[in-house]
Amino acid sequence: QKEVEQNSGPLSVPEGAIASLNCTYSDRVSQSFFWYRQYSGKSPELIMSIYSNGDKEDGRFTAQLNKASQYVSLLIRDSQPSDSATYLCAVLYTGTASKLTFGTGTRLQVTL
Amino acid sequence: ETGVTQSPTHLIKTRGQQVTLRCSSQSGHNTVSWYQQALGQGPQFIFQYYREEENGRGNFPPRFSGLQFPNYSSELNVNALELDDSALYLCASSYGRGGREQYFGPGTRLTVT
Question: Does A34 touch chain B (CB under 8 A)?
Answer without folding.
Answer: yes
